[in-house]
Amino acid sequence: MKQDDTLASSSAPAAPQGLGPTLRSLRESKSLSVAAVSARLKFSPRQIEALEAENWQALPKGLPLRGLVKNYARLLETDAEALAVLLDASTQQGHLSHQTLASSPAARSMGSMEKPRSSRGSWGWMFIVLVLVLVVLFYALDRGWLPESWLVSQWFNDVSQP
Predict the structure, then answer these.
(1) Which superkingdom (predicted)?
(2) CATH for 13-114 (3.40.50.1980, 3.30.300.20, 1.10.260.40, 3.30.420.40)
(3) Is the pLDDT of residue 115 over 90?
(4) How far apart (Å, rounded) are the C-alpha atoms in residues 34 and 49?
């Protein structure tokens, strides 16, 4: 009976190990060629083959690689998060750290979007607000809405009289 168990386990097809073989077996089970996947994902066939061969030097690093894997998973109609975990295990990068994200060009450009475009733009808004306050002040003065004690001319009269 032990011989039968050993024979059965050796004749059963082994599950693919790693991200690349998993992607390849999923692609082949959907009868998709590398060229078809390449055309749909907008990555070159060499990159698709490098991903399936786990040739990490021929692939982009960081977020673009993660995006490629997630898009490939959606194309193959499989769990994108599970494949992202396999990617992390295969590349031994784990989750992207804040330092890695902060040093990426995409993050730097996003960080620059949060800042004001220029200091002139913020001064422009402050100038507009100041002009509006002055217009409202002069309008209130003209209508007689301000008390006499608020008028500057009254201050000079109070100071000059002993």
Answers:
(1) Bacteria
(2) 1.10.260.40
(3) no
(4) 7
